[in-house]
Structure to design on (144 residues):
């Protein structure tokens, strides 16, 4: 009886080892499957475009609604790919997407308010910094 249990235990270990994937491989796979590099590039472009429009004092509400709406949709799409296989990368990217989403929402309602535009710009800058840190984490955690 003990031999049978021992054999069953060893067999289970062998089977679990066959199906395991390294953390590095899992993260690399997530990057490809989620389209992370492309979505990060898109978010950076969207945030910069929103910031450019926010910095134009004569930009209309329609202009703000357009660029900030696009940023919000792209941010929500990127956020939907979380979590990553790496807890630290997930935390950093979640923070980035939260700040970019807040910046998009603040931008959307900023209108002609200098204070509201400054608040939106601050959130966008924080989001981009967090995204940069998250990207650095992904690069280091997926290195061979």
């Amino acid at each position: 009886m003990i031999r049978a249990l021992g054999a069953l235990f060893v067999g289970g270990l062998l089977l679990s080892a066959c199906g395991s994937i390294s953390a590095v491989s899992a993260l690399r796979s997530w990057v490809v499957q989620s389209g992370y590099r492309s979505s990060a590039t898109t978010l950076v472009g969207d945030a910069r475009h929103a910031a450019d429009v926010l910095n134009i004092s004569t930009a209309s509400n329609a202009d703000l609604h357009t660029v900030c709406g696009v940023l919000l949709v792209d941010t929500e799409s990127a956020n939907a790919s979380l979590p990553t296989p790496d807890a630290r990368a997930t935390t950093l990217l979640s923070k980035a997407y939260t700040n970019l989403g807040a910046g998009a929402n603040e931008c959307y309602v900023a209108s002609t308010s200098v204070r509201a535009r400054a608040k939106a710009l601050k959130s966008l800058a924080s989001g981009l910094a967090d995204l940069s840190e998250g990207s650095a984490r992904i690069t280091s955690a997926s290195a061979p």
